[in-house]
Amino acid sequence: MPELRFDGKVAIVTGAGHGLGRSHALLLAERGAKVVVNDIGGALDGSGASAGPAADVAELIVKNGGEAVASADSVTTPEGAEAIVRTAIDAFGRVDVLVNNAGILRDKSFGKMTVEDFDSVLAVHVRGSFLVSRAVFPHMKEQRYGRIVNTTSPAGLFGNFGQANYSTAKMGLVGLTKTLGIEGARAGIKANAIAPIAWTRMTEALLPAELEQRLGADKISPVVAFLAHESCETSGEVFSVGGGRVARVFVAEGPGWHTDDLTAEAVAENWQAILTEEPHLQPTTLGEQAAASMRAML
Ligand code: NAD
């Protein structure tokens, strides 16, 4: 297998001043990509800002012989998102890869979660990924090529105590990924998402200390590199990644139960049939799912 290279390609990695984004940016640069290292440089809860983290990572890439520029713009505003993409165009003339990675946490049990906790988390993860994708989309469409890698989470896919805001945001990214995959198809734009588990400042208080090395960010970035590469033909999919394991996560629907005489009592009586998982369907569009309901009515 030849090395997967990114020579001549330009990548934007958001939230690349720390943790996973830093690791993705370093790997893409090592493989020949010119990288825009974006990071607002704030605290884990989104407070504060500093140009330092993005500048440090860009500097390290250049020191290692690569090409990179830093951006400290926030992904949460249309102006910030446009500025990130303009940085890439001004410095390198194009954008081939976008890794939407920036994220914050405001964990609280549901009864204590404020509207601000909810809105601020959705603003970075969902609105931020939408805004930067929206800003790169015309460039990718025009060159009929692009790779977008979003960052979801097992917390969104499967739920987690204290993370109503975060899990809502992360499941939102699954919807964005699937629809970007559909809408990007004709222009050669592939969109996929990773659901990582790794040792970073976001998880260091939660994960056992002895797993720091085995759950390193370096066990996540190779999957991002593959999904960002031109040889990746997959689109609209989600992969859980951690500690060297990579698995496809899919949204499936059971075979279902149908009646022409639906009542609440009939639902209760047939609940076990409704809960049945096999044989399951894996619709790849809304149309495929709707077809299953149509078929059951025939
Ligand atoms: P991290 O805190 O080290 O990195 C997140 C980065 O995003 C930070 O450097 C932060 O400054 C930056 N950022 C925050 N708001 C921003 C904004 N408005 N604009 C630009 N940059 C901004 O945490 P991490 O673990 O590396 O997280 C990276 C991504 O992976 C996040 O989306 C996170 O939700 C996701 N994730 C991580 C794990 C894990 O196990 N570490 C699990 C699931 C999902």
Automatic annotation (TrEMBL):
The keyword Oxidoreductase applies. Residues 9-205 form the Ketoreductase domain. GO terms for molecular function: oxidoreductase activity. It comes from the Bacteria. InterPro entries: KR_dom, NAD(P)-bd_dom_sf, Peroxisomal_Beta-Oxidation, Sc_DH/Rdtase_CS, SDR_fam. CDD domains: hydroxyacyl-CoA-like_DH_SDR_c-like (cd05353). The keyword Oxidoreductase applies. Gene3D superfamilies: NAD(P)-binding Rossmann-like Domain. Keywords: Oxidoreductase. Belongs to the short-chain dehydrogenases/reductases (SDR) family. This is NAD(P)-dependent dehydrogenase (Short-subunit alcohol dehydrogenase family). The lineage of its organism: Bacteria, Bacillati, Actinomycetota, Actinomycetes, Streptosporangiales.
